[in-house]
Amino acid sequence: MSSGQENIKIILVKIGEPRKFDPQDVANRDKLQGLWVVSQYFVFENGQFREEQIPSQYTDSYLEFKNDKICPGGELDESGNPKPCPSYYFYEIKGDTITEETQDIVLKWQLNDKELEITTEPTQSDPVRKRLILTKL
């Protein structure tokens, strides 16, 4: 017979060592916060980056860093205002690399004055290496 109480089992699983954060990586994450739009677009060919017209997939979109999450596919409306982000993903910064594993995102980055320079690394879904210059929205 049940006394109205349920037995609850708690199982603790050790999944690894606690994460250690580099203070510089935390400071860099703070610098990236906000909405960014592509202002220049380069494709890597024949050993160098060549500037090209910004593809439409980037002209109507934004990249957002919000706390410890990234929105790689934000859209802008007809007036250039951001629509709500469809999906946020956790990201990690280590030095000059930003990674987000579930969406297969690996980016090299650096901040120059008011511009964010991002270089994509080739992936299975996109084998072309690109460099994007972004400005804050």
Outline of the structure:
The chain has helices at residues 23-32, 56-59; strands spanning 34-45, 48-52, 61-66, 69-75, 89-90, 92-94, 97-100, 105-112, 115-120, 130-136. With 137 residues, the chain is mainly beta. 12% of the residues are buried.
Word description of this protein:
- This protein has 137 residues and is mainly beta.
- It contains 2 helices and 10 strands; from the N terminus they run αββαββββββββ.
- Strands 1, 2, 3, 4, 5, 6, 7, 8, 9 and 10 form a 10-stranded antiparallel beta sheet that branches.
- A hairpin with a 2-residue loop joins strand 3 (61-66) and strand 4 (69-75).
- The longest helix is centred in the first third of the chain and has 10 residues, at 23-32.
- The model is unreliable at 1-20 (pLDDT under 50).
**Alpha-carbon distance between the two ends:** 64 Å
Helix percent reads 10-25%
Low-confidence stretches: 1-20
Radius of gyration, CA atoms, in whole angstroms: 20 Å
Give the quaternary arrangement of the chains: single chain
The total count of helices amounts to 2
